[in-house]
Amino acid sequence: MRLEGKVALVTGGAGGIGAAICKLFTQEGATVYICDLHVQDGETLAQKYIVEDKKVYFLPLDVADAHAWQSVLARVEASEGRLDVLVNNAGISGSVPDRMDLDYFDKQWEINARGTFLGMKLARDLLAKSGRGSIVNMSSVLGLIAHEITHMGYNASKGAVRLMSKAAAVQFADQGIRVNSVHPGWMSAMRTSVSSADPEQRKKLNAEVPLKRSGTAEEAAQAVLFLASDDSSYVTGSELVVDGGLSAR
Hints:
- The protein has a 7-stranded parallel sheet, with helices on both faces.
- It has one domain (about 5-245): 3-Layer(aba) Sandwich (Rossmann fold).
- It is globular.
- Helix 1 (about 15-25) crosses helix 7 (about 215-230), helix 3 (about 65-80) packs parallel to helix 4 and helix 4 (about 100-130) runs parallel beside helix 5.
- It has helices spanning about 15-25, 40-50, 65-80, 100-130, 150-170, 200-205, 215-230, and strands at about 5-10, 30-35, 55-60, 85-90, 135-140, 180-185, 240.
- Helix content is about 45%, strand content about 15%.
- Helix 1 links the parallel strand 1 and strand 2.
- The chain is α/β, with parallel strands linked by helices.
């Protein structure tokens, strides 16, 4: 198994792509800490895997809160002594009616960008104890290209995730920590999606994709697994795009 014996923490792990990542990681032998604001969903998911005799735990986490991060990481360190994989997956959608709303710009920056920064900053020392730590940051194809349906704050925050990943890859390399970003294209609608959740809008979006469909959470999770595992031991500071060819047009 590709993550046998490894300890992983996944933010935004209670639903969507995050839940798919947690499922795949448990199948590949990892001890998984599911972190999310959605407590009931997270506890239900963790309990499902515990029943299956998997090492899965839920810890509530607001990724924009430094103190919350410190509390979660202290729990992981006390239980495991190290962290091998950090997946900064938590984020909110840019699919909203008012694409110039200032309050929503601030909210996207706080969760998508600040949350990722805090995760990297505060988990760094615990990842260094692994000797072969891996950080996978969830960006988006919209961190690479623009689109008319998206709040530009989403582009800005996901573009920041991309460049922070490169900066961290350079700055954390001497501690044996690799850092990469994953850039999903049109996927199943998020909890916070509005316009992209509309079936007619989804048909239009899929028509733009060379493969003529949306991706699945499982397909995005496979990309994260590759970067989390030793299969990508010489890959750092890179973007892995999972968009059906959208950004190639």
